[in-house]
Amino acid sequence: MEDVLRPLIVVGGSIVVTLVLGWLADLALRRADTARPDTPLWGLLRRCRVPLQVVLVTALLRGSYDRTGLEFIEDHEAGLGQILSLVLIAATAWLAIRASAAIVESSYSRYAAGARDAARVRRVRTQVTLIQRVVTAIVVVVAAASMLLTFPKMHTVGQSMLASAGLVGIVAGVAAQSTLGNLFAGLQIAFGDMVRIGDTVVVDKEWGTVEEITLTFLTVRTWDERRITMPVSYFTSKPFENWSRGGAQMTGTVFFHLDHAAPVEKMRHKLHEILQNSTDWDGRGWSLVVTDTTPTTIQVRALVTARDSDAIWSVRCEVRERLVDWLRAEHPYALPRVATAQAPGVGEGIGLLDDGPRDSPPMLDKGPGLDN
Is the pLDDT of residue 360 over 50? Predict the structure, then answer.
């Protein structure tokens, strides 16, 4: 009877104690979260319940598995102890990563809730994201090294590795030059405020928003939902456009190619009317001027402002569409026209040429139309 009860007490008792402690910890965190709704830390720490329970049950079993009295466990005591040690180290690393992520995310949430500068919020978000990745990498490396050191033969291997550490370091540095370069570039981006998550950038003639920054690569989401992934070293070695740096406000232009008879002053009043009724115009400025002229057309430039890159695109499209509709309905003569009639006197006397062609069709002057 004792041979049956002892294993049940050891294993079952470890599981019961783990469940009770996990439930008590979750209950305490839930009450703390309810009492302090302005602090998201307690709610985020509830994500650590599962790794905490794994750590507790593994630690309890690691300290009491040899007291079960089972023949199988006594025959494989060393192997089971090794397995439980490995699981305990892995579970501890898992718990540390979850807890650090909760602390970092809570700190960022509280900062973002009280900050008014969107650019600083994006900067802090980028920094905490990369800091969390660095912490995760360090924890994983330390956990892997600790797991390896639990094997007795690894001590001898470790001494050999230390003896040749200089040569290995040189070889690794040369072989991983690109990787290390990206790693340091990622840290430089995080704390140098060059580019942040959420910034609108133009890279390789592609316009998009920075969606993710890691220690080695950066992802840009384009306007058509494509993802461009490139090494972070690109942003430290090549020029790029950052439309969000120094403020999100933007100025945009819309160009029209019109007839010389176009009513520019009326267009100016109509543009102001369109902008006053637009929800995307921020009211900072506007203008409409003639910027160029050709023998057949004039170039009119409308200048508008908006709060960010998305809004400036919407304002430009709205101005272009409504001004063209207004010109077509109220002043159709202002739109560029295609010449289809031959000018008087052109081609006279051609028929007098001996056996030559009497005439040829005139070349059509299509004009440039409306510039996008």
Answer: no
